[in-house]
Design a protein that fits this description.
There is one protein chain. The chain is 56% helix and 0% strand. The chain has a domain of 68 residues. The mean pLDDT is 84. With 98 residues, it is mainly α. The longest helix is centred in the C-terminal third of the chain and has 22 residues.
């Protein structure tokens, strides 16, 4: 049986945009977020050996994770569609009451 999908780490992120018209609706980026968390904390504690406060690298992580998600949204073709999504949800609530 042929393999239909490559593992995500073998797919060029520039190919993501081509998948939406084919019905692909989910790309797992959780591992990418975990790698960002690991990198931020590793670099923080490497460079700041005097302090052991997880809140400080946590603040860095929030910014880094937001940048990752914004980048992935661009690659997946969903960047700039928030107002369209809000309008679609409002229409659904109006039509169904939920």
């Amino acid at each position: 049986m042929p393999t239909l999908f490559k593992p995500l780490n073998q797919v060029d992120e520039n190919e993501f945009i081509n998948t939406a018209p084919l019905g692909v609706t989910k790309v797992n980026i959780d591992t990418d977020g975990r790698l960002v968390w690991t990198r931020v904390h590793r670099e923080f504690f490497r460079d700041n050996t005097a302090g052991f406060d997880f809140r400080k690298p946590g603040l860095i992580y929030i910014d880094e994770y937001a940048s990752l998600i914004a980048h992935k949204n661009t690659k997946l073709g969903s960047a700039g569609t928030l107002e369209d999504a809000r309008a679609a949800l409002a229409k659904q609530v109006e039509e169904t009451g939920s």
